[in-house]
Predict the 3D structure of the following.
Amino acid sequence: MAKTKQEKLDLKAEKEYAKKHKKKYALKPGDVVFNIVNYGFFGIFTLSCLFPFYYLFINTVSNNSFVAKGMVNFYPRGFTVSNYIALKNVSDLGSSLIVSVGRTVLGTVLMVLASALIGYLMTKQKMWKRKFWYRFLVITMYFNAGTIPWYLNMVMLGLTDNFMAYIIPGIVAPYNIILVKTYVESIPAELEESAFIDGAGYFTIFKNIIFPLCKPILATIAIFGAVGHWNSFTDSLMLMQNSTNLFTLQHRLWIYLNSASNLQALMANPTGGSAAAAALQNAMNAKVIKYTISMVSIIPILMVYPFMMRYFEKGIMLGAVKG
């Protein structure tokens, strides 16, 4: 469609205005220096954070002989994926992966639902003893009985050698509830009032209005919960002593790392030539497998986090508007 005369005049005026004020927004020498230093510093900082993951990766896809000699530093040498294929020979690794994925998905979903519902209820002035329950919730963030009382409590509740020990303690997360409560308070009250006028109850409002609007903050706490569950190690170590089939991937990795370390310690004083050479080769392979298992345990988080980052940033910022 051809532009009208007025549109052409407006476009011309905009160009003249931009040309006239171009110098006004030109960077000064000090700004240029600041940008160079700023981008340079954060670029180096980013590379220093990413390099350990990159170093692990290039060692897992390099020939084991080059890794043993310490010749793999900046790029892979003798590219191979045999180390990843060899993981199928690591006992119980598959079951540990299933346990970690199961507790991460189920634990995160239940935590998000509980945080959303409780956070919403905490904003209701009509809630019975609202201030008491909110303060009681906050106090739990600062006072902790300690590891031994926690363990004894889990024993008395029958949560040892039980998969639900991974799920139940993490359902109610005070910090996440506070984030959701603050976020819900930033939602215009008129939306809820109009739903009340139409005859909707609290649960209907929560399900159809509040929950969909809370996606940014829920995605944020989902990241917290998923990373926490995936990296969790202590509960598996202390509570699953008699149920090896319930070991998490991190626990299994810890066991394998200790086994490899013991093997390398044993090789410090070899007793025979050929036997020592064979054992040394096994120790070297154990080192590479350690790298490979570590990489496998990191990959899921590295794949999910970038897609959730935009929700994470938005949720934290909007949840911080009110105190």
Summary: Residues 263-284 have pLDDT under 50 and may be disordered.
